[in-house]
Every structure is written in C-alpha cells, then in structure tokens.
Design a protein that fits this description.
Helix content is 65%, strand content 11%. The chain is an alpha+beta fold.
C-alpha cells in the first residue's frame, strides 16, 4: 500500500473512531433490530461499525501508526534548543580575570544524520513494512469477526426452524393423543394406546423447551457479535427478527485454485511475511554497529561576555556549522551479539511463514471436506421429508383400516420429526461450512456474497 493510501486510511480512522463510539452509545439505546427486521448484509455492516473486536483492532492500527512514526524518526533531522542562566553571589576576583555575577547562554542546533551504516534506508523500509503488517492484522480481525457474525446469524435461523419442527411434532402427537382418547372412550381402543400416546407427547415436550432455549441463546450471541448491549427493558427473549433464510445454493470450488489463492492472499500469511522482512531489516540494523556514523549540524547561539562583569547584557553571538563522525572500533562484541540475535529471529520468522502456509493449506482442505460433507447431507435429505410424510400417511391409513398398529403411527411420526430436524440442521451446516470455506480461502465478505 502506498503512503498516500495509508494516510487516507489513518485519516478515515481518525475521524471515524470518535463517531463510532458515539454511534455505539446511541444505537445501544435504540437498537435497529428492535424496530425492523435484520438481514445478513445488515448484520455484517453493523458489525463493521460496532463489533468490539473490530473497534479494538482499529485502536491497535492507530497505535501501530505511532510506531511507524517512531521508526522513521531516525531519518529525519533533529532540532534542539538549549539555554541556561547562572547568578553568582560569592565573588572572588583575580587580577585581569573579573568574575561575572550573571551569566547566560542560549543556542539552537539542527542535526542531520547522513550515514549510519545502512540503518537509515532500513528504517524507511521497516516503517513501510510495519504499516503493511498492521493493515494485514486488521484485515484478519475483520475477517474473523464477520465469520463469527455469519455463523451466529445462521444459528438463530436454525434455532427458529427447530422450534417450528418441534412445535409441529408436538401438535401432531397431541392430535394423536386426542384421537386415542376418543377411540378409548368409544371402546374401540385399549387404555394402553392412550398411555403410550401420553408418554410420546411427554417425551417430545422437553425437546420443544430445549429448542426455545437454544433460540434465546442464539439471539443473545448474535446481538453480542453485533456489538450491542441488550437494553434493560428487554428480558430473556430478545425481539430480533431475521429476514434471510437457510438455503443450499450451489457453490463450486476448485480445491487446487482455492489453496493457491489462500496461500497468496490470506492476511495471516501476508502479515507473517512482513514480519519476516522486518526481521531481515533487523539484521541490517544490527550490522550497522560495525560501521561509522556521520552527521552534519548547524547552530546559532549567543552568550554574555565572560570578562565584563558590569554588563551582563553584552552578548557574543554567531553561527556554527560542521560535521562529525563517530566509529566504535570495538564495543565488547555487543554488535556481534545483536547480529546473532537478529539472524536467529530472521530464521525463526521464515519458519513461522512456512508453518502458517501448511496450517492454511490444512484449513482449506478441512473446510472443503466439511463443505462436501454438508452438501452430500443436504442432497441426501431432499426426498426424505416427502417420504417420511408419505410413510406417516400410510401408517395412519393402515391403522384406521385396522391393518396397522398405533406403534407404526408413532414410529412414522418420530421419523417425520427427525427428517424435518435433520433437514434444518443440514441446511445450517451447509451455510456454516460454506462460510468457513470462504474464510479459509480468504474471500472477502460482500453484500452480494453472504450465503
């Protein structure tokens, strides 16, 4: 990234952060999800403005910019002003050398280092690398935060669908119980069938209670990921409504190309490569200890005359200019020790890059495998629900005709509930697997690509 682009980023952050804090306070008083449904794109945009991890990363980014300024400071000239004043009360005069009672001196000096064994150019390169590394770390935080928001959003959708499944199953078992009670009252079915229907209904009710609790917990997690504080007037059931739905849109991925793209563009490995380059610059800086340092300077100063005790205002002033060179011919092997340390850190940085590459490749392959599994499960469940519904219809018809048993009906009802639940979970797992795969590849999250 060019210096101009970096300046624009920092300028935007400088103006955006105070406003983001103010916006966070106001939106926490009146969260938007209390007044309107929330789409996935809305959730992602909200997280970009309010998510705590992203806001913290913005502060870290600004802190890194301060380090960049410090790194560049070695290249820039130094301007220093000095002054002193002294008043003497004990006077001891010598012939020809009168003691001055009041003395003062002041000067201002500009110093510029022109050679430091290659350390000046290295400082500029290090400043650029530090900026680029900070931006890559910032991108990593954003990507992780948005992935968490997507998963939390899908969790809410899945939990809501599971409630619908459990409610339908409970209603179905309730109808079965009512039917058995009527049959028993008419003398066509034994009391045992009523008891069996009651047990099945009682066993199903905890699942509905658990589904409702999972829905409440999922909504709390989503609100937390968005960066909201839940208003005090909101109790355990947060009134948040989502507009998107779980689906399984076709998604094709070329695994070799995905791995290559991840190794080339993932912000984690790019940041480590910058760390490797910074470690290399540390070797250059350490070797500068073997070389001389040259500076030029210019100063202007004034002082009172040293031998005129009666007039402290009588000044001597003028310009000074020159150059100075320093060279540590032997520093007790201090420079050698710094070089060895820098080399070891450089080698370690290269190992970190290699390890991160393998880690990213494994992450992509694992995410791809999980996505294939989720896609296969979704495909396998396409006709299961229809078949389970048909099986229940046939079991009920056989039971009404006297050719089947109540157990057949209850078994078919259980199979239908499991088919519904499995289908919802399959769609959830598909969307989550796709989100993780896109994160592993390093694809950007946009409003047009949020499934």
């Amino acid at each position: 990234m060019t210096v101009c682009r970096w300046f624009v980023v920092c300028l935007l952050l400088g103006f955006a952060l105070p406003r983001a804090g103010a916006q966070n306070t106001s939106t926490n008083r009146n969260p938007e999800w209390k007044s309107r449904p929330l789409s996935l794109a809305d959730a992602l945009n909200t997280a970009l403005q309010q998510n705590g991890d992203i806001l913290r990363a913005q502060s870290d980014l600004r802190a890194q910019y301060g380090i960049v300024v410090q790194t560049r400071a070695v290249v820039l000239p130094k301007l220093a002003a000095n002054g002193n004043y002294q008043h003497t009360t004990e006077i001891e005069s010598f012939p020809f050398f009168p003691t001055v009672e009041n003395s003062w001196a002041a000067n201002i000096q500009l110093t510029q280092t022109i050679y430091q064994g290659g350390q000046l150019a290295s400082a500029l390169r290090s400043a650029r690398l530090t900026k680029e590394q900070a931006l890559q770390n910032f991108q990593t935080t954003i990507a992780n935060a948005l992935l968490n928001v997507r998963i939390a959003y899908y969790d809410v959708l899945s939990a809501a669908e599971q409630i619908i499944v459990e409610e339908a199953s409970t209603n179905l078992l309730g109808q079965e119980l009512q039917d058995q009670m009527k049959r028993n009252a008419a003398g066509t079915e034994p009391r045992f069938n009523v008891l069996r229907a009651q047990v099945e209904l009682a066993n199903e009710q905890p699942k509905l209670i658990q589904a409702r609790n999972a829905y409440r917990v999922a909504k709390n997690n989503l609100v937390n990921q968005l960066g909201y504080h839940v208003p005090q007037d909101v109790l355990e059931n947060i009134p948040i409504e989502l507009t998107d739905k779980l689906d399984a849109d076709p998604y094709q991925v070329d695994l070799p190309g995905a791995i290559a793209q991840a190794l080339k563009g993932r912000s984690e490995i790019l940041a480590l490569r910058k760390s490797q380059d910074l470690a290399k610059e540390s070797v250059v800086s350490a070797r500068a200890g073997y070389k001389p340092t040259a500076q030029i300077f210019g100063a202007y100063g004034g002082r009172n005359a040293q031998f005129v005790s009666t007039d402290p205002g009588w000044t001597v002033h003028g310009w000074t200019a020159g150059a100075q060179v320093s060279w540590n011919l032997f520093d007790g092997l201090l420079t050698q020790g710094k070089i060895e340390t820098a080399k070891a850190q450089y080698e370690g940085a290269k190992v970190d890059v290699d390890n991160e590459g393998r880690k990213i490749e494994l992450e992509v392959r694992t995410a791809y495998s999980d996505f294939l599994e989720a896609a296969e499960v979704v495909e396998s469940q396409k006709k299961v629900q229809e078949e389970a519904e048909e099986a229940l219809r046939l079991a009920s018809a056989r039971f009404d005709a006297g050719a089947g048993t109540q157990l057949d009906v209850l078994t078919a009802q259980t199979s239908l509930r499991q088919a519904h639940s499995t289908q919802v979970q399959a769609l959830h797992d598909y969307d989550v697997a796709r989100a993780r795969l896109e994160r592993a590849i390093g694809l950007p999250v946009t409003s047009a690509n949020t499934k």
